[in-house]
Design a protein that fits this description.
It contains twelve helices and twelve strands. It is α/β, with parallel strands linked by helices.
């Protein structure tokens, strides 16, 4: 299988140092990977932190397989970066976006098995003219996706999919509709089969209100929006349960009976998974023509450049990306 490609992300954040840590932890299921970045930046960062990470520029992705055991393979971005740790510079936006675009080309071209993206800093990108809400939407546009990609958060104990994502809670409730729930359910069920190797996936759909609305006593969204979506998913042949009371569906015994939880808003999905596995969660984008994962954290400017950032989430993202790519290849 080809190597996994990792994009630079925001160079003022912790992406570089967690990539160095991931390479130092190679073995133990971490697949060979290469990083799209500035080799000089990584050499300087490793020297500053006192970490024994030899860096090797590569001219093509396939070279990473021969290099990986002895050095961290770097596909050079071709420009010097202005950013310093914790001090993002909008002038570096073309390099940040260029790394993402190169990674997408590599994975679409079959030169990389999967794409892992380090965190970006959206505010500095916006100030430089970036017009996409975030990584997910940009990747969908680069991939030519005709339908909206779906976010899934994954850890060994739980998979969750938020139907509405980065919205104020009031706006999320106003935007919630049966069509969005059905879309999330269909895309999730297909990905569980193709990318996770689950032959007969079961989806659990959360209610929106306390006690899943208590038959309309605490709100009618379950009756008017969520139940019709569940009915439509069942009619499509999907094994779906719900709407379930959100306060009782995430304990250990309940989680045994489903493969992914479809949640109505951001925190309903992210609170349980971050409680269960704060450092090891992985962000997965479903509905793309390639596998994409990402660490489930941000740029962490407060600790950037100090060598204290934990790499568990990136390592989990690398392992999951390779597993998903292998499952997809087998399914196809």
């Amino acid at each position: 299988m080809p190597p996994v490609v990792v994009t630079m992300g925001e160079p003022a954040g912790i992406g570089g140092e967690i990539a160095l840590k991931a390479w130092l932890s190679r073995g133990g299921g971490i697949p060979p990977f290469y990083l799209i970045d500035d080799p000089d930046r990584l050499v300087a960062l490793a020297r500053q932190l006192g970490w024994p990470v030899p860096v090797r520029p590569i001219g093509a992705p396939e070279e990473a397989l021969a290099v990986f055991d002895e050095a961290l393979p770097i596909a050079p971005i071709g420009v010097a970066l202005r950013t310093l740790p914790a001090r993002p510079d909008p002038a570096d936006t073309p390099a940040i976006l260029g790394a993402i675009e190169t990674g997408v080309r590599d994975v679409l071209g079959g030169r990389a098995a999967a794409l892992v993206t380090n965190p970006i800093h959206k505010d500095s990108l916006y100030r430089a003219g970036f017009r996409y809400p975030g990584h997910t939407e940009y990747l969908g546009a680069l991939a030519g996706a005709t339908n909206a990609p779906v976010m899934m958060l994954v850890c060994p104990a739980l998979r969750v999919v938020p139907v509405t994502v980065h919205l104020a809670l009031g706006q999320a409730i106003r935007d919630l509709c049966a069509a969005a729930i059905v879309h999330a359910g269909r895309v999730s069920e297909a990905a569980l089969r193709r990318d996770f190797g689950i032959a007969a996936p079961v989806l659990a759909v959360a209610g929106l209100n306390p006690h899943a609305g208590e038959a309309g006593s605490f709100g009618r969204e379950e009756i008017e929006i969520i139940e019709p979506a569940v009915t439509e998913l069942r009619a499509a042949g999907i094994d779906v349960r719900g709407p379930l009371a959100p306060d009782t569906m995430f304990h250990a015994e309940a989680r045994r009976y489903y493969d992914a939880a479809i949640c109505m808003y951001h925190d309903q999905a992210l609170i349980p998974i971050k409680t269960l596995d704060f450092y090891g969660g992985v962000n997965v984008t479903l509905g793309l023509p390639f596998v994409r994962t990402s660490p489930d954290h941000g740029t962490a400017f407060a600790i950037a450049g100090r060598g204290v950032a934990r790499a568990e989430s990136l390592i989990a993202a690398l392992r999951l990306a390779a597993d998903m790519a292998a499952n997809r290849m087998a399914a196809d």
